Amino acid sequence: MHERSLSTGGKIAAFREQLAEQRWDDHRFYHHSLVNQSLHFVSAATFIVAYAIMWKEPALAALLGWGVAMTSRQAGHFFFEPRGYDHVNDCTHEYKEDVKVGYNLARKVVLMALWASCPVLLLWQPALFGAFEPHDGAMQFLEHLGLLWLALGIGGLLFRVVCLFFIRDVETGLVWGTKIVTDPFNDFRLYCRAPGQLLRQVRATRGARLG
């Protein structure tokens, strides 16, 4: 019994260690820009609100999650994060993309393309092949769109977890899935000062130009 307890404790410790490592790699490789960090703070705050209303208003939660949280989050990565040589970590952007555990930029393009195609699919197939009653007005369309985006989010998460089971190992997949679900809370804590730092940087830059 004591040996089993030690074994379980060791597994939990290893799980936490890998979770901390994935979080640290994500931060040091992909969050150099203060703009990106600020957008991640906005994303994290929105996701936390979405989590809070998920069980009562799943469609609205998904609309917030995808329409605000994910778009601000990915805009930071696509448009503001530098892609040149990373002198801080002494590696190339290509290397970081190759070793990325979750969705690298290439995979994110596919994921965001699927997200953007959902409204078009609902306009073309209002009943979504029998999944819904055809929408009657804009509000019902948004409700159906939210539920479709919710399914896409869950599906995208589970798909990558299962992929990691095969290309890495089960623990890596479970750790990454845990990281993604808990990222809003970690990012909120990590980047809550970024908007203020960004504002001070902008003011300093303007002051230097005027001076």
* SS strand fraction: under 5%
- Characterize the biggest β-sheet: none
Q: Name the structural class.
A: mainly alpha
Total domain units? 1
Q: What is the CA-CA span between the terminal residues?
A: 72 Å
What is the percent of helical residues?
over 70%
Low-confidence stretches: none
Tally of separate helices? 8
**Integer average pLDDT:** 92
* C-alpha-based Rg, rounded: 20 Å
- The string of secondary-structure elements, in order, is HHHHHHHH
The shape is: globular
Count of β-strands: 0
Describe the structure.
The protein has 8 helices and no strands. The mean pLDDT is 92. With 211 residues, the protein is mainly alpha-helical. It has helices spanning 2-30, 34-53, 58-80, 93-99, 105-124, 138-167, 170-191, 194-210. The radius of gyration is 20 Å and the shape is globular. It has one domain (2-210). Helix 2 crosses helix 7 (170-191), helix 3 (58-80) packs across helix 6 and helix 5 runs antiparallel to helix 6. Helices cover 80% and strands 0% of the residues.
